[in-house]
Amino acid sequence: MAADFVVDFHNHHIPQRFESTAARTFPPSQQARWLDLNRKLADEDLLLQDIRNGDLDARVVNTPAALLADADGHLAHGTIVEINDELAELAGRHSGRIRALATIDAYDGDRAAREVERAIKHLKLTGLFVDSARGDLLIDAPQARPTLQVAAELGVPVFVHPVNPQPFTDQMSRYGRLGVLFARGTVNSAALIALLEGGVFTQLPGLKVVVTALAFGGLAMASGFAHHSILSEGTIAAMRKHVWIDTMGFDPAQIRASIDILGADRVLAGSDWPIVNEGPIRERLFAALQTADVAEADRALITGGNALALVGH
To answer: What are the phi and psi torsion angles at 227 (to 5°)?
Structure first.
């Protein structure tokens, strides 16, 4: 893998036929911003722009059910099926440049697991995109186990993405975007701890999970307080086997620490386009890796090699 090959693992897109509900479900202080984001999320040309101009070589794309769901976080199963059909067509139109993760309601039991089978085996999507939590449930819930089990059996990655936990998000929204990101990072961290301490990785040895950089708190907690873990193999060993984390904030200190905890082969270039980061990322990514004193061979893994190893070449 060339050292300058860049794959952005963390990108959102909502096909135009679907209506985003995000402007209604996010805190009032965020609604005007989300009206603009909804336009960007639906723009296929914009999705491809940074690939066409050479900033990126490929994107891994997802459609978050949370951005289409009702106030209770639910999205009709039929809509999820249609989303995955659209994502497969998107990836087909832009083969090699766009790879797509299947949208899955992981809390829908066996029906969700059947959609995983269809999306991976028949639609040829390259992984799953699921919510960290649903109401009082975290991703280790029994309702989510069929989805995780099929993913483990098929060897595809599961991107466990943050949601807005309530009432914590409303409580933190008074502190602006940083407050909302903290709330989302808290639930992403909680999902990671739940997978570790809930024994999911022990029971599903083939499971591959990606979390965002917002979950770094959970990663650091599991590492720094590993002696409190109930896992016989230890949290660090489990994470190095099962967990990947992205570079969403492009913070050198956080990237360096993620490498130190997980290894360079478990860190993925990921921007959270267009929600947290938009526009070119190559320069920021390489500057962060240089400041973090990442070896050239490890840079090639982080910028593109690890993503392609997860979702296939």
So the answer is: -70, -10
The angle, 0 to 180 degrees and rounded to 10, between the axes of the packed helices 235-242 and 216-224 is 140
Query: pLDDT by residue (tens digit) across 186-233?
Result: 999 999 999 999 999 999 999 999 999 999 999 999 998 888 877 766
Tokens of 236: 């660090």
Name the token pair of 293: 């004193």
Sheet with 102-103: strands ordered across = 102-103, 128-131, 157-161, 208-211, 243-246, 267-268
The one-character DSSP state at 304 is: I
Distance (Å, rounded) from C-alpha 64 to C-alpha 56?
Answer: 22
Regions of the chain short of the pLDDT cut 70: 1-3, 23-27, 30, 232-233, 313
Cα(208)–Cα(211) distance, rounded to whole angstroms?
10
pLDDT given at position 36: 85
Count of other CB atoms within 10 angstroms of residue 227: 7
CB 63 within 8 A of CB 87: yes
